[in-house]
Amino acid sequence: MRTDRQYTETEEEYRSAFRRDRDRITYAPEFRRLKDVTQIAHVGESYLYHDRLTHSLKVAQVGESIAELLRQEYAHQQIERELDTQVVIAACYAHDIGHPPFGHVAERELNRLLQEEHTPNELGFEGNAQTFRILTRLANHREEGFGLNLTRATLNATIKYPWARSEKPNKDKWGYYKSEKEAFEFAREGSNRTEKQSLEAQIMEYADDVTYAVHDIDDFYRSGLIPLDRLLVEAEQNYRVDEETSNIEQYLREEGKEEIADNVRRVLNDINSNYARDPLKCPYTNSEEQRIAIAQFDSNLISDFINGSEGTEPPIIIDLTDDEFDLERDDNVEETIQVLKHITRYYVLSNPSLNAQRHGQRRIIRVVFNALYEESGKPGISAIPEPYRDRLQENLKVATETQNARVVADMITSMTEKQVSAMYKRLQGHSPGSLVDEIVR
């Protein structure tokens, strides 16, 4: 059953099993940590940008809206068999929990360290697999080692990549480590979707894509990194001057993304005609008019990604194949999302200041990992704090480098960006701190 848990519990009368899942994630410290973790910019600039907690809350809002819409539109097909709104919200809350401080740059560095340097036979690090590990093993609820003991449906809804790395060694993404294979099999039991997401996971992923695409444009236009005003003016003037637009198209073609490049002008024309008010066609100054205009831009674009614009078909529909429901995305909406994402990549990810920050962030992760890994083999006093010291002591009974490296990765992933930076300074002797200042609590 969808409401089954891996470890039996007594359910409550006044809260559904799925609502309890949502509440457990909300109260987990791993969820609260996300307020000090960012996607691109470092957390010291989080007053300008969405942190991962704010992002997750907004993903959940979008996911809830999609789920409610689909439950109404497809009630006659008994879609509630595979779609519960509380499951979608819980999955949206959980989807970023396993991502380390500094985002993808740290994820890639941890993968390199785990796979290449310390445990060559291990299967690396991946943020989505780490999310599943936290939910099923590391997070504390009632019993040590049981994780949050979520229902089968909610666990399945968090799995964006339903395979192990060993099954698809050429893929950059995977859904679980071999240490969580039993929990993965429990989550997937009863599903005929071999290597396919559940419907609720598909909704979570779509809500994630929509939210990032829109809010990254919002964030980086406000900060001056994305010249949204110039792009809109070029579209409005029918590209008589097209310097910015041409640069984006050239970048995409050099990256081998011809199809996305071909859609840039159509997307910019659509945004200029239907979503961008005149205040957005000027550099951002934080004026009242621009604050209202950008809020309406976000709201209207997201609304149309869910409901469709007036006179058009809904952008998301359900396909019922082999008695299972699947989400189908409208091609134009998918193209718009991809263009918005790549505009952010062009203007932000190629920024020299950001890349200098990322160089330093990789060093922080590398130094902290190596230092803690060296400490992990010591049987007595070490620099490893609780509860990770207890976990390492358990590992000493079997003494495997792989398990020690995994625990060190768990520890780093549990930190905020401020914590891992403070740990780096302490380990390097730059800022020893106080004896009573425990960085990891």
Automatic annotation (TrEMBL):
One of its GO terms (molecular function) is dGTPase activity. The lineage of its organism: Archaea, Methanobacteriati, Methanobacteriota, Stenosarchaea group, Halobacteria. This is DGTPase. It comes from the Archaea. SUPFAM superfamilies: HD-domain/PDEase-like (SSF109604). Coiled coil: none annotated. Keywords: Hydrolase. One of its GO terms (biological process) is dGTP catabolic process. InterPro entries: dGTPase, dGTPase-like, HD/PDEase_dom, HD_domain, PHydrolase_assoc_dom. Pfam families: HD, HD_assoc. Its EC number is 3.1.5.1. The gene is dgt. It comes from Haloferax mediterranei (strain ATCC 33500 / DSM 1411 / JCM 8866 / NBRC 14739 / NCIMB 2177 / R-4). Residues 52-213 form the HD domain.
